[in-house]
Amino acid sequence: MAGIYIHIPFCRKACHYCNFHFSTTHSLLAQMIDAIVAEVALQQLYLQEKIDTIYFGGGTPSLCTAEQIERILQAIKVTFSVSDGAEITLESNPDDITAERLIAWQQMGINRLSIGVQSFVEDDLRWMNRAHSATQATDCIQLAQQYGFTNLTIDLIYGTPTLSDEQWQQNVQTAIDLGVTHLSCYALTVEPKTALDKMIQLEKIANVDIEQQAKHFELLMQWLQAAGFEHYEISNFARPDHRSRHNSSYWQGKTYLGLGPSAHSFNGYSRQWNIANNALYMASIAKEVVPFEVEHLTPTQQLNEYIMTSLRTMEGLSLQHVQLRWGNAAHTAILQAAHLYLHDNYMVQSDQYLRLTNAGRLIADGIAADLFQ
Ligand code: SF4
């Protein structure tokens, strides 16, 4: 089984912290849809497996008309073999969600909605330069549920200077009370060249407080675990049977194809990424050439990718899998590197799996780096 990701590179406003590839000028949106539909045919040979997940991300896919989303979806269904129960997710922003759109998305087969809420606190939303209000954040979730989207996930951001511990708790509790079945929660990161980065450098705003972020993350784990959510990946929490199948396939190292500018593809042995420039992408597709760069992963790089992604998941790193695929030496080296973390309760070992504890999740990247070969 494989997945397809479609990158829609347009947004209404530039959020201060964002470094994804997008444009706030929408004059080329229709042309971009034509190009993505054309890329579907050009990429026909990349995937031989059945498609189990399709994910419209970006950018802001909910800026597209229903017809534009459906054109891409139809092109995928005609070109690839899509399984009957495929998970089809659409990322949306609260200010785009209307009853008409929800009906249209359902009718075309979108069965999972991801809403970029980020916060239910007005000051926090203004600080991030989000396009929606706190009221819109709550209303759109209720409207989506009313129109049948029970498989619904929201994004929340913590560790912003405008978010107190009490407000963070309120944000998480609001999501629980609204009956949201999946949450993706991210610490605010200051990416180079973003508006946030510039404002911090000019000392217009305070830098991110790492300790406050760690505290928010610890509290988040406590609250959501107590509320019955599975913490199935560092940043992701789900009610039973509501994990993201698409994102899980990334962490399980399955094959996926990325369509659109800046989209990444992976087949287990190589990674490729389309050019992150709308005009150059469309010009190249017009000549029937997909503009991408490719990196072939060495066996050691493949092992390190496995260490990084598996440790982030609830299932953890399978020592048996490491032994079978990369040999005894890698198996022994990983166990040796893990020894101190096991001793200090940052990790546990059971059934041939290494798993992070809550304390370990706070320093997951550092632990993974220490286990790298
Ligand atoms: S809407 Fe999403 S992709 Fe667009 S600028 Fe904001 S965070 Fe980035």
Automatic annotation (TrEMBL):
CDD domains named in the record: Radical_SAM
Location (main, coarse): cytoplasm
Source domain of life: Bacteria
Keyword Iron carried by entry: yes
Keyword terms of this UniProt record: 4Fe-4S, Chaperone, Cytoplasm, Heme, Iron, Iron-sulfur, Metal-binding, S-adenosyl-L-methionine
Chain ranges of the Radical SAM core domain: 1-230
Matches recorded under SUPFAM superfamilies: Radical SAM enzymes (SSF102114)
Database matches in Gene3D superfamilies: tm_1862 like domain
Signal peptide: none
Locations listed in the record: Cytoplasm
Function of the protein: Probably acts as a heme chaperone, transferring heme to an unknown acceptor. Binds one molecule of heme per monomer, possibly covalently. Binds 1 [4Fe-4S] cluster. The cluster is coordinated with 3 cysteines and an exchangeable S-adenosyl-L-methionine.
Family membership noted in the UniProt record: Belongs to the anaerobic coproporphyrinogen-III oxidase family. HemW subfamily.
Protein name: Heme chaperone HemW
Gene name of the record: hemW
